[in-house]
Write a structure and sequence with these properties.
Length: 293
């Protein structure tokens, strides 16, 4: 297909690469043009000066940007995708954003006979680079059926959750669960060290039972080694949790643990860990150990 990809960050860059590697005709746009140029040198394709130019002849336009304001800018702005995308085409937004902005974009897209799917992803940078993302999708069945075969280029699992906004709501559930799991793992490893246990032996003992998780399998070693300069940044996790807590204030969900872990991530930021991986929750526990007070 003729496709466009808007946003070439740590997620979008490899995702767009998988589209090009699977013989789709890809035009990219990125706010920092040098990143788009580097992508073209690696994968071929075309670089557009604006999202509107990128979308002008596209059958599907994918976007993966930072937050609600970025989504509005690249999709709805005067030089955005909706300014030029042909009727009958589809927009797929992979940004982790609010369900509110997803519904807003969908309404505007419908006015131009353009389909819209909110399709946030899980799997982090490694998942994007290995084409192993999990995608949770909100939108109508018809555009989903057309887009799913293209998204399959970079995904291991694609689930149609429900109408527009459902993908973003499912991603909020994902982040709630991750927050609790990482905090539990951080406390467990911290406890093991204080109890004089070898964390490697403990993990070997418990990782094949009910405590097993992706976080345990992939992060326990780096956590005990105080290695956090990789992965999904604390700043981004706090952005996602803010969206989640705002939604909870509307739907009445009681997210006591999520509120608490969000506060713990604020403490990690105070330690200078804004760009540390989310597994850095253990750092605040270890730092407290060293506090003479």
């Amino acid at each position: 297909m003729r496709v466009a990809f808007i946003g070439l960050g740590v997620m979008g860059y490899p995702m767009a690469g998988f589209l090009a590697s699977n013989a789709h005709e890809v035009t990219v746009y990125n706010r920092t043009e040098s990143q788009a140029t580097a992508w073209r040198e690696e994968y071929g394709g075309e670089v557009a000066a604006t999202p509107a130019v990128a979308a002008a002849n596209a059958e599907i336009v994918f976007s993966c940007v930072g937050n609600d304001d970025d989504v509005r800018d690249v999709l709805l702005g005067p030089n955005g995708v909706l300014a030029s995308i042909p009727a009958g085409s589809i927009m797929v937004d992979h940004t982790t954003a609010s369900a509110t902005v997803a519904r807003e974009v969908a309404a505007r897209a419908e006015e131009k006979s353009v389909g819209f799917l909110d399709a946030p992803v899980s799997g982090g940078q490694a998942g994007a680079e290995n084409g192993q993302l999990a995608v949770m999708v909100g939108g109508a069945p018809e555009p989903f059926a057309r887009a799913v075969v293209v998204m399959d280029c970079y995904a291991k699992a694609i689930t149609h959750v429900g109408p527009v906004g459902s993908g973003q709501l499912a991603k909020m559930v994902n982040q709630i669960c991750i927050a609790g799991i990482v905090q539990g793992l951080a406390e467990g490893l911290h406890f093991a060290k204080r109890a004089g246990l070898d964390p490697a032996i403990v993990i070997e003992s418990i990782s094949k039972g009910a405590a097993q998780s992706w976080q345990m399998e992939n992060r326990w070693q780096t956590m005990i080694n105080d290695e956090f300069e990789f992965g999904f940044a604390v700043d981004w996790m706090r952005k996602d949790l803010a969206i989640t807590l705002q939604e909870a204030s509307t739907n009445g969900a009681n997210l006591e643990m999520t509120i608490l872990v969000d506060q713990f991530y604020a403490e990690v930021q105070d330690l200078g860990g804004q760009r540390w991986d989310t597994s850095s929750l253990i750092a605040r526990l270890e730092t407290a150990d060293q506090d003479p007070e």
